[in-house]
Amino acid sequence: MSPIRVPTRPIPGMKPGTSGLRKRVQDFRAPHYLENFLQAVFDAVRPPEGFGAATLVIGGDGRYFNREAIQTALRMAAANGFARALVGRDGLLSTPAASAVIRAHGAFGGLILSASHNPGGPDGDFGIKFNGSNGGPAPEKVTDAIHAASLALDHYLTLDTPDVDLGRLGPFALGELQGEVIDPVADYLALMRRLFDFDALQRLFAGGFRLAFDAMHAVTGPYATAIFEQALGAPPGTVRNGRPLPDFGGHHPDPNLVHARALYDEMMGPDAPDLGAASDGDGDRNLIIGRGCFVSPSDSLAMLAANAHLAPAYARGLAGVARSMPTSGAVDRVAARLGIPCYETPTGWKFFGNLLDAGRITLCGEESAGTGSDHVREKDGVWAVLLWLSVLAARRCSVTEIARSHWAAYGRNHYTRHDHEDLDADVARALMRDLAARLATLAPGDRLGGRAVRLSDDFAYLDPVDGSRSTGQGLRLVFEDGARIVWRLSGTGTVGATLRVYLERYTADPADIAQDTQAALADLVALADELSGLAARTGRSEPSVIT
Ligand code: G6P
Ligand code: ZN
């Protein structure tokens, strides 16, 4: 069957952001939009010998438009000459599971269809991300090449074939392409069994341990049910909102204290389970809450780094750790004590890929509720819960006790992120530009709000593995006492601009450690507002979301 060559013209704006191309569903449904982007991906990543020996993995988070987009991607993969395709049943693959499948099957790469934690449905968001043969998101040089290819298109290739039945496991053919609909959970579950002691976790649940896992009607439902309830014997009902829905039940599938409010309230209530956890639309984020005790993602990374050796996969210790620049420095202190390197990367999981591939780090994480390890090349929500369960099973204590003993041993990095969503994009850009100019006038030793400035800059990263340099990764103001304010514009939104302000202060004083985080950071919040002129420029007095 010969490919159909459909003439097209470049569509501007196909520049992948922090994590792939994210747009409104309506944008993706515009004539040729999806096809143009897919063809740009194939053109950018096509090896000199073509795709004749290549396997492509395809799956998504089940959001609205997922199935149609997968049918288009399959036809175009076949028309572009891919030898094989593996697609998750019903079009589902969590992002970490897609990474695991790419690695387990030696695939050329994968297409992950997701807009992560953004809302779904016909008026919601959609997204596509290309991951390479290491299972990780394409690095900047590849996403730049995709953008360039999108501006050079004059046609795309497809086939005229009926839809593939995505509901039936097993092989299918599409032109010359040999496809297979696979169980989306199987490879991932096998990997988790190799990393963790499932017998020990079974005993934990048999002893009455209670977990509440909120899948937020997103992709982790089938994974969490198979792992926590079926394999580990947690009682039915442990997994809530476990059925993936195209509109996530009308909610934002973002596991934070705003969108996972019901879980948070339960965990703060009188009959709270031992561990509350949630994951996002595509299953790579995690929220961890103990009984009466929210664990910030930055702290979770530090606490897992300090305790990872309690799980079989990490029993021999960690090669190193990494965190994104805006993530708190709590993990740095653990690394220092363990005598291992700690890398500071820009926001975006793709920046961990080289460090993981080179064996320089074993564990990494971000303030944006992402934690992961070298088992895949994505952050991994269900994995993070399994690692927490492993630590709790080995230490036989509560989340609160782990947090308290951690802070007693290392001190505490009080940390919060204030998001100002849906700002006018021009206003936000002007704010950042003027703030950068203001910060550039500061010199080390200058005093601001009672603190001495150590440095202020626009964060740039030199990748120690491939020598690539990434600039413009966030404005930061760091004080001599370690306190920091960081300002960044989000790279994952689809409308307007979101300004993120990250605030942090370290303390080793027991009375200060016990303080409420927002109170502990109030002076820095006021200073951040004053420096950026946020209220005056935007008329906003309060952040839209505080995490
Ligand atoms: C996605 C990426 C993360 C990143 C997060 C926040 O989840 O995978 O690596 O930290 O987005 O990005 P943003 O640009 O919105 O702050
Ligand atoms: Zn996600």
Automatic annotation (TrEMBL):
Keyword line: Isomerase, Magnesium, Metal-binding, Phosphoprotein
Membership in a protein family: Belongs to the phosphohexose mutase family.
Protein name as catalogued: phosphoglucomutase (alpha-D-glucose-1,6-bisphosphate-dependent)
Entry superkingdom: Bacteria
Gene Ontology molecular functions: magnesium ion binding; phosphoglucomutase activity
Domain Alpha-D-phosphohexomutase alpha/beta/alpha: 14-150, 187-289, 298-410
GO cellular component: cytosol
NCBIfam families: PRK07564.1-1
This enzyme's EC code(s): 5.4.2.2
Species for this entry: Piscinibacter sakaiensis
Catalytic activity: alpha-D-glucose 1-phosphate = alpha-D-glucose 6-phosphate
Region named Disordered: 1-20
PANTHER family xrefs: PHOSPHOGLUCOMUTASE, PHOSPHOHEXOMUTASE FAMILY MEMBER
Cofactors demanded by this protein: Mg(2+)
One of the Pfam families matching this protein, by short name: PGM1_C_vert_fung
PROSITE patterns: PGM_PMM
Any one biological process term the GO annotation gives: carbohydrate metabolic process
